[in-house]
Target: Adenine deaminase
Amino acid sequence: MSLIPKAELHLHIEGTLEPELAFALAERNGVELPYAGTEALRRAYLFSDLQSFLDLYYGLMVVLRTADDFTELADAYLTRAAAQGVRHAEIFFDPQAHTERGVPIGTVVEGLAHALDRAEERHGVSTRLIMCFLRDRSAESAMETLDAAKPYLHHITGVGLDSAETGHPPSKFREVYAAAESLGLRKVAHAGEEGPPAYVRQALDVLGVERIDHGLRSMEDPELVERLVREQVPLTLCPLSNVRLRAVDTLEEHPLRAMMDAGLLVTVNSDDPAYFGGYVGDTFHAVREALGLNHEQLRELALNSFRAAFLDQDEARRERCLAEVAGYDFDRE
Ligand code: ADE
Ligand code: ZN
Model:
């Protein structure tokens, strides 16, 4: 595990639901899970692609019902993240995955916000909340979700786009992103995880996003790479996720290092750590081993995470974190 101070910018809070917590919440809420126990559940974590993961991921969310459940979920993540060197976390959540099951958006946001609001004091972690639209649902559903979130926007920094990518281009969400921008929300989107480089371009040109989540397949399009380098668009890579969801065959073959060498502004993140074999400190360690990254490359990844963070309202914190990374002594690890 690597303890270098870092920001985590690509993390789905529902993807931090560990089997032990899932079973504890199932019991508390009187929900029956279709697995014999935590080990049986873990054995089901063999994915062939993004969709096969999403089916299990959405299925397990039945255990999340009350505001306290969401608070507990976020507290557990923040405790683990802080122990792995995270100083700032920008946390995604999927409101439609809950509202469709009859859990009101206010229950979700207020439950999460309760944990996030005390995270700096309890864990030394500053936080932002990013509401993601499910791209395999309709644009109308996304707009209804944005409307439903209006009473809670003081807790929400930005919007994102996630779920099954293929066949669901960013352009489908042009209007809802325009509406989000007019509400003062920041904009990011998953693109180029399984989808083509054209989806990365659309996310930039049609949605006007400030960061691309994943962006892995950008490497297939040299002109796009040149643009991403020129504009220094941050890419929030998730290498362990890419291996588990079979976007790359092995970690050793992950293009992270080639992307850094090309001059792209890349960051390393955990995506859904309960499912993909590690939190973000574990991920730093794994890429270091698999790709032979040296200390300065790891330092660059950590610096990038703070450069790309939505810390504009707290530049003093960004500067403190950057200075901490610059002075970090790897020999203490
Ligand atoms: N939701 C949770 N994890 C995701 C991922 N890796 N891609 C798209 N949607 C997601
Ligand atoms: Zn993701």
